[in-house]
Amino acid sequence: MTNLDELFKDQPIMAILRNMDPDRSVRLSRTAWQLGISLVEVPIQTPDAVPSLEAVLAAAQEEGRPVGAGTVTTMDQVGLCEELGVAFTVAPGLDADVVAESERLGVPHLPGVATASEVQQAIRLGCTWLKAFPASLLGKEFFPAMGGPFPRVNFVATGGMNAHNAKEFLDAGVRCVAVGSALEDEAQLPQLAQLIGR
Question: What CDD domains does its record include (predicted)?
Answer without folding.
Answer: KDPG_aldolase (cd00452)
